[in-house]
Amino acid sequence: MHQPLEEIKRLKALAETGLLYAQNDYDRERYQELSEISFRLLSMLSDHSVQDLKQQFPLVNEYPTAKVDIRALILSPDKKILLVKEMADRRWSLPGGWADVGFSPQEVIVKEVREETGLDVDVRRLLAVFDKRKHPHPPQPFYVYKMVFWCEALSFEMKKGFDVLDAAWFAIDDLPGLSEDRILRSQIELLYARLMQGECECFFD
Asked: How many structural domains is the chain composed of?
């Protein structure tokens, strides 16, 4: 795992929490220094300047928490998996994206699938909650929980959305190059196997 990055993210979160709850200028100054150190370390591990990172990750004004990524596992009648081709890296992922404020997880996934593929789905149940830190995803500054829901398609006439390059069905043993920041082959294979075996319990890290 990317241990240095995980330690820096933890340092950044502690500094931001300290700034929120500091009771005096002395503590506030120390936590501000820790925050600056975390940005400099992040800059060393990335291709971004400290200033760019500060614009992308402004100081929080409430307790820092994990971000939530929500994805859908949808199977065709012949058990193929629906994937979308991401614009960011031109690789494939399960439909989905960041959780939106004001929408329940179920509402988010229905909206995301419709926007990306044109399909309407029935959300059946939660399959897994992954902690990205515990899986070999590429490093990133955010701390992310990934929720994957099993959904059944109510229609099969696809119309790809403006924010993806393509949408298509793939057999489990013929998956294309995946967008590993979003989903891993091992995760898809795990969820597919559990679904095929009739496993009803949610997997979680």
From this structure: 2
Q: 10: Cβ–Cβ under 8 A, 6 or more apart, which residues?
A: none
Q: How much is the mean pLDDT over the chain?
A: 90
Domain assignment of residue 114, given as a range: 67-204
What are the pLDDT digits (tens) for 14-43? 888 888 888 888 888 999 999 889 888 888
Q: Global pTM?
A: 0.74
State pLDDT tens for residues 118-136.
Answer: 999 999 999 999 999 899 9
* Spatial distance between the Cα atoms of 47 and 52, rounded to a whole number of angstroms: 10
- Which amino acid belongs to residue 67? K
pLDDT at 62: 63
As beta bridge partners, residue 68 has 145
Note whether 139 and 76 are same-domain residues: yes
Q: Is residue 61 part of a domain?
A: no
Q: Is residue 62 part of a domain?
A: no
Alpha helices in 46-167 (DSSP H): 50-56, 105-117
Give all strands (DSSP E) within the chain, no chain letters.
Answer: 67-74, 81-86, 92-93, 96-98, 121-131, 144-153, 164-170, 203-204
Same domain flag for 156 and 180:
yes
Contacts of 144 (CB under 8 A, 6+ apart): 66, 67, 68, 69, 131, 132
Is residue 48 located within the same domain as residue 115? no
